[in-house]
Protein backbone atom coordinates (compact mmCIF):
# COMPACT_ATOMS: atom_id res chain seq x y z
CA UNK A 1 0.00 0.00 0.00
CA UNK A 2 0.99 3.65 -0.39
CA UNK A 3 2.76 5.14 2.62
CA UNK A 4 3.52 8.81 3.14
CA UNK A 5 6.95 8.22 4.67
CA UNK A 6 9.31 5.34 5.32
CA UNK A 7 9.30 3.54 8.62
CA UNK A 8 12.52 4.64 10.34
CA UNK A 9 15.00 1.99 11.48
CA UNK A 10 18.14 2.19 13.57
CA UNK A 11 20.02 1.11 16.67
CA UNK A 12 20.81 4.30 18.64
CA UNK A 13 17.45 5.86 19.53
CA UNK A 14 14.06 6.90 18.20
CA UNK A 15 11.74 9.80 19.06
CA UNK A 16 8.29 10.31 17.55
CA UNK A 17 5.95 13.12 18.51
CA UNK A 18 3.26 15.46 17.26
CA UNK A 19 5.75 18.27 16.45
CA UNK A 20 9.07 18.11 14.66
CA UNK A 21 10.78 20.53 17.05
CA UNK A 22 9.94 18.32 20.03
CA UNK A 23 11.16 15.21 18.21
CA UNK A 24 14.38 16.99 17.30
CA UNK A 25 14.97 18.15 20.88
CA UNK A 26 14.42 14.62 22.17
CA UNK A 27 16.87 13.24 19.62
CA UNK A 28 19.46 15.86 20.59
CA UNK A 29 19.29 14.55 24.14
CA UNK A 30 19.74 10.96 22.95
CA UNK A 31 22.75 12.04 20.90
CA UNK A 32 24.17 13.62 24.08
CA UNK A 33 24.04 10.17 25.76
CA UNK A 34 20.76 10.83 27.52
CA UNK A 35 18.28 8.02 27.85
CA UNK A 36 14.67 7.74 26.67
CA UNK A 37 13.34 9.41 29.81
CA UNK A 38 15.67 12.39 29.50
CA UNK A 39 14.59 12.73 25.87
CA UNK A 40 10.88 12.45 26.68
CA UNK A 41 11.14 15.20 29.29
CA UNK A 42 12.98 17.52 26.91
CA UNK A 43 10.45 16.87 24.15
CA UNK A 44 7.56 17.31 26.57
CA UNK A 45 8.66 20.77 27.61
CA UNK A 46 9.23 21.82 24.00
CA UNK A 47 5.66 20.76 23.17
CA UNK A 48 4.40 23.13 25.90
CA UNK A 49 5.96 25.97 23.93
CA UNK A 50 5.34 25.04 20.30
CA UNK A 51 1.81 23.58 20.62
CA UNK A 52 0.35 25.92 23.27
CA UNK A 53 -3.23 25.38 22.11
CA UNK A 54 -2.86 21.66 22.83
CA UNK A 55 -0.87 21.54 26.08
CA UNK A 56 0.95 23.74 28.53
CA UNK A 57 2.71 23.97 31.91
CA UNK A 58 -0.68 24.15 33.69
CA UNK A 59 -1.75 20.80 32.28
CA UNK A 60 -1.04 17.16 33.05
CA UNK A 61 0.96 14.17 31.83
CA UNK A 62 0.25 10.44 32.05
CA UNK A 63 2.80 7.98 30.66
CA UNK A 64 3.40 4.24 30.39
CA UNK A 65 6.97 2.94 30.31
CA UNK A 66 9.43 0.12 30.84
CA UNK A 67 13.05 0.48 31.86
CA UNK A 68 16.10 -1.40 30.65
CA UNK A 69 16.35 -3.06 34.06
CA UNK A 70 12.66 -3.81 34.65
CA UNK A 71 10.36 -4.93 31.85
CA UNK A 72 7.24 -4.63 34.02
CA UNK A 73 5.14 -1.77 32.59
CA UNK A 74 4.68 1.15 34.97
CA UNK A 75 2.55 4.30 34.84
CA UNK A 76 3.62 7.85 35.58
CA UNK A 77 0.58 9.68 36.98
CA UNK A 78 1.08 13.37 36.41
CA UNK A 79 -2.67 13.96 36.52
CA UNK A 80 -3.58 16.46 39.20
CA UNK A 81 -6.63 15.93 41.41
CA UNK A 82 -9.67 18.07 42.18
CA UNK A 83 -8.91 20.89 44.65
CA UNK A 84 -10.20 20.74 48.24
CA UNK A 85 -12.86 23.34 47.43
CA UNK A 86 -14.13 21.50 44.35
CA UNK A 87 -17.27 19.96 45.82
CA UNK A 88 -20.54 19.08 44.14
CA UNK A 89 -22.30 21.40 46.57
CA UNK A 90 -20.12 24.37 45.61
CA UNK A 91 -20.74 23.95 41.89
CA UNK A 92 -24.45 23.20 42.11
CA UNK A 93 -24.78 26.13 44.54
CA UNK A 94 -23.62 28.32 41.66
CA UNK A 95 -26.54 27.03 39.60
CA UNK A 96 -24.41 24.68 37.49
CA UNK A 97 -25.41 21.22 36.30
CA UNK A 98 -22.04 20.57 34.64
CA UNK A 99 -18.50 21.65 35.43
CA UNK A 100 -17.75 24.37 32.85
CA UNK A 101 -15.41 23.44 30.04
CA UNK A 102 -13.49 26.71 30.24
CA UNK A 103 -12.46 29.18 32.90
CA UNK A 104 -11.13 28.76 36.42
CA UNK A 105 -13.72 26.36 37.85
CA UNK A 106 -12.50 23.69 35.43
CA UNK A 107 -8.98 23.59 36.89
CA UNK A 108 -7.47 20.59 38.61
CA UNK A 109 -4.07 20.79 40.31
CA UNK A 110 -1.46 21.28 37.55
CA UNK A 111 0.46 18.01 37.19
CA UNK A 112 2.79 18.28 34.21
CA UNK A 113 5.74 20.00 35.93
CA UNK A 114 5.87 17.60 38.86
CA UNK A 115 5.18 14.59 36.65
CA UNK A 116 7.99 15.32 34.21
CA UNK A 117 10.41 16.13 37.03
CA UNK A 118 9.57 12.97 38.96
CA UNK A 119 10.27 10.92 35.82
CA UNK A 120 13.56 12.76 35.27
CA UNK A 121 14.65 12.34 38.88
CA UNK A 122 13.94 8.62 39.20
CA UNK A 123 14.60 7.31 35.69
CA UNK A 124 16.58 9.98 33.82
CA UNK A 125 20.27 10.79 33.92
CA UNK A 126 20.41 14.48 33.00
CA UNK A 127 20.18 17.60 35.13
CA UNK A 128 17.01 19.65 34.79
CA UNK A 129 18.85 22.52 33.07
CA UNK A 130 20.13 20.09 30.43
CA UNK A 131 16.65 19.02 29.32
CA UNK A 132 14.79 22.31 29.88
CA UNK A 133 17.18 24.44 27.82
CA UNK A 134 15.51 23.52 24.53
CA UNK A 135 12.07 24.74 25.63
CA UNK A 136 13.53 27.87 27.20
CA UNK A 137 15.37 28.60 23.97
CA UNK A 138 12.20 28.41 21.87
CA UNK A 139 10.19 30.46 24.39
CA UNK A 140 12.90 33.13 24.56
CA UNK A 141 14.09 33.28 20.95
CA UNK A 142 10.88 32.30 19.19
CA UNK A 143 9.35 29.55 17.12
CA UNK A 144 6.95 29.25 14.16
CA UNK A 145 3.39 28.99 15.44
CA UNK A 146 1.35 26.10 14.04
CA UNK A 147 -1.12 27.41 11.47
CA UNK A 148 -3.98 26.29 13.70
CA UNK A 149 -3.11 28.80 16.46
CA UNK A 150 -4.22 32.00 14.65
CA UNK A 151 -7.53 30.28 13.83
CA UNK A 152 -7.96 29.37 17.51
CA UNK A 153 -7.22 32.97 18.49
CA UNK A 154 -9.77 34.27 16.01
CA UNK A 155 -12.40 32.06 17.65
CA UNK A 156 -11.72 33.52 21.11
CA UNK A 157 -10.78 37.07 20.12
CA UNK A 158 -13.84 38.70 21.72
CA UNK A 159 -13.34 36.65 24.89
CA UNK A 160 -9.69 37.67 25.15
CA UNK A 161 -10.47 41.31 24.37
CA UNK A 162 -13.44 41.79 26.69
CA UNK A 163 -13.18 39.25 29.50
CA UNK A 164 -9.67 37.73 29.62
CA UNK A 165 -7.34 40.72 29.08
CA UNK A 166 -4.26 38.91 30.34
CA UNK A 167 -4.72 36.35 27.58
CA UNK A 168 -5.27 39.11 25.05
CA UNK A 169 -2.05 40.84 26.06
CA UNK A 170 -0.03 37.68 25.56
CA UNK A 171 -1.66 36.07 22.56
CA UNK A 172 -3.59 38.42 20.29
CA UNK A 173 -0.44 39.55 18.52
CA UNK A 174 0.38 36.02 17.40
CA UNK A 175 0.31 35.74 13.61
CA UNK A 176 1.84 32.34 12.89
CA UNK A 177 5.05 33.76 11.43
CA UNK A 178 7.09 33.84 14.63
CA UNK A 179 6.20 33.97 18.30
CA UNK A 180 8.00 34.28 21.62
CA UNK A 181 6.82 33.72 25.18
CA UNK A 182 9.36 35.57 27.34
CA UNK A 183 7.16 35.35 30.44
CA UNK A 184 7.27 31.55 30.28
CA UNK A 185 11.02 31.60 29.69
CA UNK A 186 11.40 33.83 32.76
CA UNK A 187 9.28 31.41 34.83
CA UNK A 188 11.42 28.43 33.87
CA UNK A 189 14.68 30.29 34.41
CA UNK A 190 13.53 31.39 37.88
CA UNK A 191 12.63 27.79 38.70
CA UNK A 192 16.10 26.70 37.57
CA UNK A 193 17.70 29.42 39.69
CA UNK A 194 15.92 27.97 42.75
CA UNK A 195 16.82 24.38 41.80
CA UNK A 196 19.89 24.09 44.00
CA UNK A 197 21.24 21.12 45.91
CA UNK A 198 24.23 18.84 46.35
CA UNK A 199 23.03 16.25 43.82
CA UNK A 200 21.10 16.06 40.57
CA UNK A 201 18.14 14.57 42.43
CA UNK A 202 18.22 17.30 45.09
CA UNK A 203 18.20 19.99 42.39
CA UNK A 204 15.14 18.44 40.81
CA UNK A 205 13.30 18.20 44.13
CA UNK A 206 14.12 21.85 44.84
CA UNK A 207 12.59 22.79 41.49
CA UNK A 208 9.48 20.78 42.35
CA UNK A 209 9.12 22.70 45.62
CA UNK A 210 9.73 26.05 43.91
CA UNK A 211 6.71 25.24 41.75
CA UNK A 212 4.27 23.78 44.27
CA UNK A 213 5.29 25.73 47.37
CA UNK A 214 6.92 28.83 45.94
CA UNK A 215 6.28 31.67 43.54
CA UNK A 216 4.28 29.65 40.99
CA UNK A 217 1.79 28.44 43.60
CA UNK A 218 1.53 31.95 45.04
CA UNK A 219 0.71 33.44 41.62
CA UNK A 220 -1.85 30.71 40.89
CA UNK A 221 -3.53 31.20 44.29
CA UNK A 222 -3.83 34.95 43.83
CA UNK A 223 -5.05 34.78 40.23
CA UNK A 224 -7.62 32.05 40.85
CA UNK A 225 -9.49 34.32 43.27
CA UNK A 226 -10.43 36.70 40.42
CA UNK A 227 -13.74 35.85 38.71
CA UNK A 228 -13.50 35.22 34.97
CA UNK A 229 -16.17 34.42 32.42
CA UNK A 230 -16.53 30.73 31.57
CA UNK A 231 -18.78 28.85 29.16
CA UNK A 232 -21.64 28.74 31.65
CA UNK A 233 -22.16 32.37 30.62
CA UNK A 234 -21.23 33.70 34.06
CA UNK A 235 -18.00 34.89 35.68
CA UNK A 236 -16.71 32.62 38.43
CA UNK A 237 -13.64 32.55 40.63
CA UNK A 238 -11.70 29.31 40.85
CA UNK A 239 -11.30 27.01 43.82
CA UNK A 240 -7.67 25.98 43.25
CA UNK A 241 -5.29 27.23 45.97
CA UNK A 242 -1.61 27.23 46.71
CA UNK A 243 -2.30 24.80 49.55
CA UNK A 244 -3.79 22.37 47.02
CA UNK A 245 -0.62 22.54 44.95
CA UNK A 246 1.63 22.10 47.99
CA UNK A 247 -0.29 19.01 49.10
CA UNK A 248 -0.09 17.05 45.84
CA UNK A 249 2.71 15.31 43.98
CA UNK A 250 2.99 13.04 40.97
CA UNK A 251 3.41 9.31 41.48
CA UNK A 252 4.17 5.96 39.90
CA UNK A 253 1.75 3.04 39.85
CA UNK A 254 1.22 -0.33 38.22
CA UNK A 255 -0.11 -0.38 34.69
CA UNK A 256 -3.35 -2.17 33.85
CA UNK A 257 -2.66 -4.93 31.33
CA UNK A 258 -4.40 -7.49 29.15
CA UNK A 259 -2.94 -10.29 27.04
CA UNK A 260 -4.47 -10.41 23.57
CA UNK A 261 -3.14 -12.07 20.43
CA UNK A 262 0.26 -12.84 21.92
CA UNK A 263 0.79 -9.26 23.11
CA UNK A 264 0.55 -7.74 26.58
CA UNK A 265 -0.99 -4.27 26.24
CA UNK A 266 -0.35 -1.85 29.11
CA UNK A 267 -2.50 1.19 29.89
CA UNK A 268 -3.16 3.70 32.66
CA UNK A 269 -5.80 2.60 35.17
CA UNK A 270 -9.55 3.28 35.08
CA UNK A 271 -9.05 6.82 36.36
CA UNK A 272 -8.34 7.23 32.63
CA UNK A 273 -10.19 5.81 29.64
CA UNK A 274 -7.17 3.59 28.94
CA UNK A 275 -8.77 0.23 29.77
CA UNK A 276 -11.33 0.88 27.01
CA UNK A 277 -8.67 -0.09 24.46
CA UNK A 278 -8.15 -3.36 26.33
CA UNK A 279 -11.90 -4.03 26.40
CA UNK A 280 -12.17 -3.40 22.66
CA UNK A 281 -9.32 -5.81 21.97
CA UNK A 282 -10.92 -8.43 24.23
CA UNK A 283 -14.23 -8.09 22.38
CA UNK A 284 -12.50 -8.49 19.01
CA UNK A 285 -10.25 -11.36 20.08
CA UNK A 286 -10.80 -14.27 17.70
CA UNK A 287 -12.83 -12.25 15.19
CA UNK A 288 -12.10 -12.42 11.46
CA UNK A 289 -10.52 -9.00 10.95
CA UNK A 290 -9.63 -8.73 7.27
CA UNK A 291 -7.55 -6.19 5.36
CA UNK A 292 -7.01 -5.79 1.63
CA UNK A 293 -3.97 -3.77 0.52
CA UNK A 294 -3.85 -2.05 3.90
CA UNK A 295 -7.54 -1.14 3.99
CA UNK A 296 -9.97 -2.85 6.40
CA UNK A 297 -13.10 -4.52 5.10
CA UNK A 298 -16.58 -3.33 6.00
CA UNK A 299 -16.92 -6.30 8.37
CA UNK A 300 -13.77 -5.27 10.23
CA UNK A 301 -14.86 -1.64 10.64
CA UNK A 302 -18.37 -2.66 11.70
CA UNK A 303 -17.09 -5.05 14.37
CA UNK A 304 -14.64 -2.43 15.64
CA UNK A 305 -17.34 0.26 15.87
CA UNK A 306 -19.72 -2.01 17.75
CA UNK A 307 -16.94 -3.11 20.12
CA UNK A 308 -16.10 0.55 20.74
CA UNK A 309 -19.69 1.35 21.67
CA UNK A 310 -19.79 -1.45 24.23
CA UNK A 311 -16.41 -0.60 25.73
CA UNK A 312 -17.16 3.10 25.99
CA UNK A 313 -20.60 2.46 27.47
CA UNK A 314 -18.74 0.58 30.20
CA UNK A 315 -16.36 3.53 30.51
CA UNK A 316 -19.33 5.79 31.20
CA UNK A 317 -20.87 3.50 33.80
CA UNK A 318 -17.80 2.07 35.53
CA UNK A 319 -14.61 4.12 35.07
CA UNK A 320 -13.46 6.84 37.42
CA UNK A 321 -11.41 7.63 40.51
CA UNK A 322 -14.28 8.33 42.90
CA UNK A 323 -15.64 4.80 43.42
CA UNK A 324 -14.44 1.22 43.20
CA UNK A 325 -13.97 -0.01 39.62
CA UNK A 326 -14.38 -3.76 38.87
CA UNK A 327 -11.36 -3.65 36.58
CA UNK A 328 -10.46 -7.34 36.70
CA UNK A 329 -13.96 -8.38 35.63
CA UNK A 330 -14.26 -5.71 32.94
CA UNK A 331 -11.05 -6.97 31.36
CA UNK A 332 -11.71 -10.68 31.79
CA UNK A 333 -12.19 -13.00 28.77
CA UNK A 334 -15.44 -14.29 30.31
CA UNK A 335 -16.96 -10.81 30.53
CA UNK A 336 -15.86 -10.05 26.97
CA UNK A 337 -17.48 -13.26 25.75
CA UNK A 338 -20.74 -12.27 27.43
CA UNK A 339 -20.66 -8.79 25.95
CA UNK A 340 -19.64 -10.05 22.52
CA UNK A 341 -23.06 -11.68 22.08
CA UNK A 342 -24.56 -8.18 21.83
CA UNK A 343 -22.74 -7.50 18.57
CA UNK A 344 -24.92 -8.26 15.55
CA UNK A 345 -24.76 -7.50 11.84
CA UNK A 346 -26.51 -4.15 12.34
CA UNK A 347 -25.44 -1.04 14.25
CA UNK A 348 -26.97 -0.63 17.68
CA UNK A 349 -28.32 2.83 18.64
CA UNK A 350 -28.30 2.07 22.36
CA UNK A 351 -25.85 2.98 25.11
CA UNK A 352 -25.44 -0.47 26.70
CA UNK A 353 -23.15 -0.72 29.71
CA UNK A 354 -22.69 -4.19 31.15
CA UNK A 355 -23.17 -5.64 34.62
CA UNK A 356 -19.77 -6.90 35.80
CA UNK A 357 -20.11 -9.25 38.77
CA UNK A 358 -23.86 -8.77 38.56
CA UNK A 359 -23.69 -5.11 39.48
CA UNK A 360 -26.28 -2.69 38.16
CA UNK A 361 -24.74 0.03 35.98
CA UNK A 362 -25.41 3.65 36.92
CA UNK A 363 -25.33 6.37 34.28
CA UNK A 364 -25.50 10.09 35.10
CA UNK A 365 -29.05 11.43 35.24
CA UNK A 366 -27.89 14.28 32.99
CA UNK A 367 -27.73 11.83 30.10
CA UNK A 368 -31.40 10.90 30.39
CA UNK A 369 -32.51 14.24 28.93
CA UNK A 370 -32.11 15.33 25.29
CA UNK A 371 -28.79 17.01 24.55
CA UNK A 372 -27.45 18.70 21.44
CA UNK A 373 -25.61 16.35 19.14
CA UNK A 374 -22.05 16.84 17.96
CA UNK A 375 -23.41 17.84 14.57
CA UNK A 376 -25.47 20.64 16.05
CA UNK A 377 -28.99 19.16 16.00
CA UNK A 378 -31.09 17.88 18.87
CA UNK A 379 -30.68 14.20 19.54
CA UNK A 380 -32.54 11.96 21.96
CA UNK A 381 -29.99 9.65 23.59
CA UNK A 382 -30.93 5.99 23.55
CA UNK A 383 -30.40 4.67 27.07
CA UNK A 384 -31.00 1.12 28.35
CA UNK A 385 -34.69 0.28 28.33
CA UNK A 386 -35.79 3.15 26.10
CA UNK A 387 -37.61 2.83 22.80
CA UNK A 388 -37.90 4.93 19.68
CA UNK A 389 -35.55 5.60 16.82
CA UNK A 390 -33.28 8.60 17.45
CA UNK A 391 -32.98 11.45 15.01
CA UNK A 392 -29.38 11.78 13.93
CA UNK A 393 -27.92 14.60 11.87
CA UNK A 394 -25.69 13.65 8.98
CA UNK A 395 -23.18 15.55 6.93
CA UNK A 396 -19.84 17.07 7.81
CA UNK A 397 -19.89 18.79 11.23
CA UNK A 398 -19.36 22.53 11.02
CA UNK A 399 -18.80 23.22 14.73
CA UNK A 400 -15.32 24.61 15.39
CA UNK A 401 -13.03 22.55 17.58
CA UNK A 402 -12.76 25.66 19.78
CA UNK A 403 -15.84 27.75 20.61
CA UNK A 404 -15.97 31.49 21.19
CA UNK A 405 -16.09 30.80 24.95
CA UNK A 406 -12.86 28.78 24.89
CA UNK A 407 -14.56 25.39 25.13
CA UNK A 408 -12.37 22.78 23.43
CA UNK A 409 -13.64 19.33 22.52
CA UNK A 410 -10.29 17.81 23.25
CA UNK A 411 -6.95 17.61 21.59
CA UNK A 412 -3.46 17.28 22.90
CA UNK A 413 0.05 16.08 22.04
CA UNK A 414 1.93 12.80 22.20
CA UNK A 415 5.52 11.53 22.53
CA UNK A 416 7.10 8.08 22.12
CA UNK A 417 10.78 7.38 22.78
CA UNK A 418 12.99 4.30 22.86
CA UNK A 419 16.76 4.08 23.31
CA UNK A 420 19.60 1.64 22.68
CA UNK A 421 19.42 0.30 26.23
CA UNK A 422 15.76 -0.71 26.00
CA UNK A 423 14.12 2.12 27.95
CA UNK A 424 10.79 2.88 26.23
CA UNK A 425 8.06 5.39 27.08
CA UNK A 426 4.72 6.55 25.70
CA UNK A 427 3.41 9.87 27.08
CA UNK A 428 0.31 11.94 26.33
CA UNK A 429 0.66 15.42 27.87
CA UNK A 430 -2.32 17.77 27.66
CA UNK A 431 -4.23 20.57 29.34
CA UNK A 432 -3.40 24.18 30.01
CA UNK A 433 -4.75 25.10 26.57
CA UNK A 434 -4.18 28.80 25.86
CA UNK A 435 -7.82 29.21 24.73
CA UNK A 436 -9.58 27.53 27.66
CA UNK A 437 -8.38 29.40 30.75
CA UNK A 438 -7.14 32.96 31.26
CA UNK A 439 -3.37 33.48 31.18
CA UNK A 440 -1.76 34.03 34.59
CA UNK A 441 0.21 37.29 34.34
CA UNK A 442 3.91 36.94 35.00
CA UNK A 443 3.92 33.16 34.50
CA UNK A 444 3.18 32.97 30.78
CA UNK A 445 0.73 30.09 30.97
CA UNK A 446 -2.81 29.24 32.06
CA UNK A 447 -4.46 26.52 34.13
CA UNK A 448 -6.05 23.35 32.80
CA UNK A 449 -9.70 22.45 32.37
CA UNK A 450 -9.70 18.71 33.06
CA UNK A 451 -12.27 19.01 35.89
CA UNK A 452 -15.00 19.25 33.23
CA UNK A 453 -14.76 15.44 33.08
CA UNK A 454 -16.30 15.07 36.53
CA UNK A 455 -20.06 14.68 36.96
CA UNK A 456 -21.96 16.91 39.39
CA UNK A 457 -23.92 13.94 40.69
CA UNK A 458 -22.73 12.09 43.81
CA UNK A 459 -22.11 8.37 43.90
CA UNK A 460 -20.75 7.80 40.39
CA UNK A 461 -17.25 6.56 39.60
CA UNK A 462 -16.54 9.88 37.88
CA UNK A 463 -18.32 12.13 40.40
CA UNK A 464 -16.59 15.32 41.48
CA UNK A 465 -14.80 14.57 44.77
CA UNK A 466 -11.95 16.66 46.21
CA UNK A 467 -8.64 14.85 46.00
CA UNK A 468 -9.72 12.51 43.19
CA UNK A 469 -8.58 12.44 39.58
CA UNK A 470 -10.93 13.29 36.70
CA UNK A 471 -11.64 10.40 34.37
CA UNK A 472 -9.27 11.66 31.76
CA UNK A 473 -9.26 10.81 28.06
CA UNK A 474 -5.44 10.84 27.98
CA UNK A 475 -4.33 7.35 27.09
CA UNK A 476 -0.73 6.41 26.19
CA UNK A 477 -0.09 2.77 25.25
CA UNK A 478 2.72 0.24 25.48
CA UNK A 479 2.71 -3.31 24.13
CA UNK A 480 5.20 -6.17 24.44
CA UNK A 481 5.39 -9.72 23.20
CA UNK A 482 8.58 -10.59 25.02
CA UNK A 483 10.97 -9.86 22.16
CA UNK A 484 9.57 -6.49 21.08
CA UNK A 485 8.16 -3.45 22.85
CA UNK A 486 6.00 -0.89 21.02
CA UNK A 487 5.02 2.51 22.45
CA UNK A 488 2.22 4.34 20.69
CA UNK A 489 -0.54 6.89 21.16
CA UNK A 490 -2.37 9.89 19.78
CA UNK A 491 -4.16 13.09 20.73
CA UNK A 492 -7.90 13.17 20.14
CA UNK A 493 -9.99 13.22 23.33
CA UNK A 494 -12.57 10.43 23.34
CA UNK A 495 -11.21 9.17 20.01
CA UNK A 496 -7.74 8.32 21.34
CA UNK A 497 -8.43 4.68 22.16
CA UNK A 498 -10.42 4.22 18.97
CA UNK A 499 -7.71 5.60 16.68
CA UNK A 500 -5.19 3.49 18.58
CA UNK A 501 -7.44 0.51 17.87
CA UNK A 502 -7.31 1.38 14.14
CA UNK A 503 -3.51 1.47 14.35
CA UNK A 504 -3.21 -1.75 16.33
CA UNK A 505 -5.55 -3.71 14.07
CA UNK A 506 -3.70 -2.50 10.99
CA UNK A 507 -0.40 -3.58 12.52
CA UNK A 508 -1.47 -6.95 13.94
CA UNK A 509 -4.41 -8.07 11.78
CA UNK A 510 -3.37 -6.21 8.63
CA UNK A 511 0.33 -7.04 8.94
CA UNK A 512 1.42 -3.46 8.20
CA UNK A 513 4.57 -1.81 9.52
CA UNK A 514 4.36 1.11 11.93
CA UNK A 515 4.19 3.84 9.28
CA UNK A 516 1.69 2.01 7.09
CA UNK A 517 -0.45 1.30 10.18
CA UNK A 518 -0.52 5.02 11.00
CA UNK A 519 -1.26 5.91 7.37
CA UNK A 520 -4.09 3.36 7.09
CA UNK A 521 -7.61 4.87 6.96
CA UNK A 522 -9.18 5.52 10.37
CA UNK A 523 -12.62 5.85 11.93
CA UNK A 524 -14.30 6.39 15.30
CA UNK A 525 -17.72 6.35 16.92
CA UNK A 526 -19.40 9.30 18.62
CA UNK A 527 -22.27 7.13 19.91
CA UNK A 528 -21.43 7.57 23.58
CA UNK A 529 -21.22 10.64 25.86
CA UNK A 530 -18.36 13.02 25.25
CA UNK A 531 -15.97 13.63 28.12
CA UNK A 532 -16.00 17.33 27.27
CA UNK A 533 -18.52 20.04 28.04
CA UNK A 534 -21.44 19.92 27.22
CA UNK A 535 -21.17 16.08 27.27
CA UNK A 536 -23.16 15.35 24.08
CA UNK A 537 -23.36 12.24 21.94
CA UNK A 538 -24.95 11.08 18.70
CA UNK A 539 -26.33 7.51 18.60
CA UNK A 540 -25.01 5.45 15.68
CA UNK A 541 -22.80 8.21 14.32
CA UNK A 542 -19.41 7.14 13.01
CA UNK A 543 -16.86 9.58 11.61
CA UNK A 544 -14.75 8.01 8.87
CA UNK A 545 -11.97 8.71 6.44
CA UNK A 546 -13.14 8.39 2.83
CA UNK A 547 -10.12 6.24 1.98
CA UNK A 548 -12.05 3.32 3.43
CA UNK A 549 -13.63 3.23 -0.02
CA UNK A 550 -17.11 3.89 -1.28
CA UNK A 551 -18.13 0.23 -1.27
CA UNK A 552 -17.18 -0.11 2.40
CA UNK A 553 -18.95 3.13 3.30
CA UNK A 554 -22.09 1.97 1.49
CA UNK A 555 -22.05 -1.35 3.34
CA UNK A 556 -21.62 0.39 6.70
CA UNK A 557 -24.53 2.72 5.93
CA UNK A 558 -26.76 -0.23 5.06
CA UNK A 559 -25.91 -1.75 8.44
CA UNK A 560 -27.28 1.33 10.18
CA UNK A 561 -24.18 3.42 10.83
CA UNK A 562 -24.79 7.16 10.39
CA UNK A 563 -21.57 8.09 8.63
CA UNK A 564 -19.85 11.46 8.56
CA UNK A 565 -17.21 11.59 5.85
CA UNK A 566 -14.33 13.59 7.33
CA UNK A 567 -12.23 13.48 4.15
CA UNK A 568 -9.32 11.26 3.14
CA UNK A 569 -6.72 12.34 5.76
CA UNK A 570 -8.44 13.73 8.84
CA UNK A 571 -8.47 11.39 11.84
CA UNK A 572 -5.70 10.78 14.32
CA UNK A 573 -2.24 12.14 15.10
CA UNK A 574 -0.57 8.85 15.97
CA UNK A 575 3.08 8.19 16.56
CA UNK A 576 4.90 5.00 17.53
CA UNK A 577 8.33 3.58 18.31
CA UNK A 578 9.42 -0.04 18.62
CA UNK A 579 12.42 -1.81 20.13
CA UNK A 580 13.12 -5.42 19.19
CA UNK A 581 16.25 -6.50 21.04
CA UNK A 582 18.10 -3.33 20.04
CA UNK A 583 16.67 -3.00 16.53
CA UNK A 584 14.64 0.19 16.64
CA UNK A 585 11.76 1.50 14.50
CA UNK A 586 9.66 4.65 14.49
CA UNK A 587 6.83 6.36 12.61
CA UNK A 588 4.67 9.47 12.91
CA UNK A 589 1.43 10.85 11.56
CA UNK A 590 1.40 12.77 8.25
CA UNK A 591 -2.05 14.31 8.86
CA UNK A 592 -1.58 18.01 9.54
CA UNK A 593 2.03 17.85 8.31
CA UNK A 594 3.45 18.52 11.76
CA UNK A 595 4.24 15.22 13.50
CA UNK A 596 7.61 13.63 12.81
CA UNK A 597 9.75 10.72 13.88
CA UNK A 598 13.53 11.02 14.05
CA UNK A 599 16.21 8.53 14.90
CA UNK A 600 19.22 6.57 13.78
Structural write-up:
The chain has 600 residues and is an alpha+beta fold. Helix 13 (275-284) packs across helix 17 and helix 14 crosses helix 19 (550-558). The protein starts with 7 loop residues before the first strand and ends with a strand. The relative contact order is 0.20.
Summarize this, please?
This protein is α+β, with helices and mostly antiparallel strands and 600 residues long. Helix content is 32%, strand content 16%. The chain is globular.
**Strands of the biggest beta sheet: in what spatial order?**
1-24-23-19-18-9-8
User: Structural class of the helix and strand makeup?
Assistant: alpha+beta
Radius of gyration: 22 Å
pLDDT average, as an integer? 93
Would you identify the regions where 5 or more consecutive residues have pLDDT less than 50?
Answer: 370-400
Shape: globular
Number of helices: 19
Itemize the secondary structure elements and their pairings:
Elements: E1 8-10, E2 13-17, H1 20-31, H2 36-50, E3 61-66, E4 74-78, H3 88-93, H4 112-123, H5 128-141, H6 148-155, H7 157-162, H8 165-171, H9 182-193, H10 200-212, H11 215-224, E5 228-229, E6 235-236, H12 242-246, E7 251-254, E8 256-260, E9 263-267, H13 275-284, E10 291-292, E11 295-296, H14 298-318, H15 327-330, H16 333-340, E12 371-372, E13 378-379, E14 415-419, E15 424-427, E16 439-440, E17 445-446, E18 477-480, E19 484-489, H17 496-508, H18 514-519, E20 523-525, E21 541-544, H19 550-558, E22 562-565, E23 575-580, E24 583-588, E25 596-599
Parallel strand pairs: 21-22
Antiparallel strand pairs: 1-24, 2-14, 2-25, 3-4, 3-15, 4-7, 5-6, 8-9, 9-18, 10-11, 12-13, 14-15, 16-17, 18-19, 19-23, 20-21, 23-24
Helix pairs in contact: 1-2, 2-4, 2-5, 4-10, 5-9, 13-14, 13-16, 13-17, 14-19
Amino acid sequence: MFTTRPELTGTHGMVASTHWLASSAGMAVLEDDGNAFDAAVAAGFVLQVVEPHLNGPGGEVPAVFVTAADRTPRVLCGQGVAPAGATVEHYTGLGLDLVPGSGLLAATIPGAWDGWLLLLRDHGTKRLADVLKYAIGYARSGFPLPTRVPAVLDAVRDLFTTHWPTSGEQWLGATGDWFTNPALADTWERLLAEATGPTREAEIDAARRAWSQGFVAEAVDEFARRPHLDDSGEAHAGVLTGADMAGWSASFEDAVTAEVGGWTIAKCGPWSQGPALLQQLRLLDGADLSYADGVPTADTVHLALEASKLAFADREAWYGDSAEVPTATLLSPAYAAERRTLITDTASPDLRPGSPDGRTPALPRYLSTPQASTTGDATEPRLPGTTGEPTVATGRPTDPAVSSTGTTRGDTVHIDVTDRWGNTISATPSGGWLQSSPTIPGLGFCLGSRAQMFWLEPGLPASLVPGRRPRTTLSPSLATNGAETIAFGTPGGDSQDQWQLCFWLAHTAGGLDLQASIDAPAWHSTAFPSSFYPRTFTPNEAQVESRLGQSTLDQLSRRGHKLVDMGPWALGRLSAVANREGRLRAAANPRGMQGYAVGR
